[in-house]
Amino acid sequence: MKFQWHPLGSSRRVFCMNEHKDDEHFEFLMTDGKTCFKETLTAEEVRSRNGRLNPAVEASAGDLIPEIVQILSKNTTSLDLLPSELLQRDDDEDGIDPVLKIRGKLYNYDFQWHFDLTAMGAEELFEILSSSLLNVLSAMFARQDFLVDLLKKKDLEIFDYSQSGATLSRNSLKTEKFDLAHLKETALPSTPSSLSLLTTEPFHDIQKCIELSESHADQSSDPNPSPKIRIRGEKVGQWKYNDSESDSDDHNASVSSKRRRPQPTSAPVKVSAKASLAKKLKKI
């Protein structure tokens, strides 16, 4: 998953750690919804930093990063963001980017780590946060339409069973017919209204569905789509729409055939002089 958010300890911020296996680097992102910070580390930089901060810990970057994610998610982890006042600074204000220092337990070992953060711009914040929220919201609308349509079909199915004489084994199984208008007026249960919503399992599930749909769309799409071309014919107002190269070839063939001069139905046959003389001798 591209952006799988986790709660950042007991703070009101969330974070995610993306692994890019193609060029072996890791991207740490942290946001409070207003500003976003990140640090990108190569696998070698992760190993080097771990060697300085935790000499007793020997692990590859791929094994160490998931452990850091687990430590960051725990409420017992000590988090220090220094200097904290930089989180409220203006984008055009100069200053030192903050450092996130963490201290926690790694298999009963006192583990420490830090991220040298860099502030991200508004466009990047929209790409990683707002765009993700809009995609999930759009998917939820589509899922609601699907479920509403399914409930209506189920009501028709139950009605058909009842018309055929079928009955329920228990009255507790009986339900009211689905009413969309009533659903719109029904108060919904309370849900998280903060960034913690990004860390919930339902949110992650919808993100996975979106990525699955996008991968299927990429596989089904034509890698070399033919251009949509229309060519005016010899007669004004007649168009030929071309969706493929074969259609273009057929069109070119038809156009060239129209431009050929009409051939006579019976072409004149040339007769040699010897054949003409033989015919005359036969008549004599």
Q: What would you note in describing this structure?
A:
The structure is a single chain. Helix 1 packs across helix 2 and helix 3 crosses helix 5. A hairpin with a 6-residue loop joins strand 1 and strand 2. The protein starts with 5 loop residues before the first strand and ends with a helix. Among the domains are: 115 residues, DNA double-strand break repair and VJ recombination XRCC4, N-terminal (Dna Repair Protein Xrcc4, Chain: A, domain 1); 61 residues, no CATH class. 42% of the residues lie in helices and 19% in strands. The chain has 7 helices and 10 strands. The longest helix is centred in the middle third of the chain and has 42 residues. With 284 residues, it is of the alpha+beta class. The chain has a 5-stranded antiparallel β-sheet. It has a 3-stranded antiparallel β-sheet with strand order 5-6-7.
CATH architecture of the domain at 6-120: Beta Complex
Helix content: 40-55%
Task: Kindly report the average pLDDT value.
Answer: 77
Instruction: Please identify which CATH superfamily of the domain at 6-120 we are dealing with.
Output: DNA double-strand break repair and VJ recombination XRCC4, N-terminal
What is the CATH top level name of the domain at 6-120? Answer: Mainly Beta
- Which structural class is indicated by helix and strand composition? alpha+beta
- From the alpha-carbon coordinates, what is the Rg to the nearest angstrom? 36 Å
Q: What does the main sheet amount to?
A: 5 strands, antiparallel
Low-confidence residue ranges: 85-93, 244-248, 264-269
Our count of helices gives 7
The CATH topology label of the domain at 6-120 is Dna Repair Protein Xrcc4, Chain: A, domain 1
Q: Write down the overall geometry.
A: elongated
SSE string? EEEEHHEEEEHHHEEHH
The strand line-up of the biggest sheet is 1-2-3-4-8
Number of strands: 10
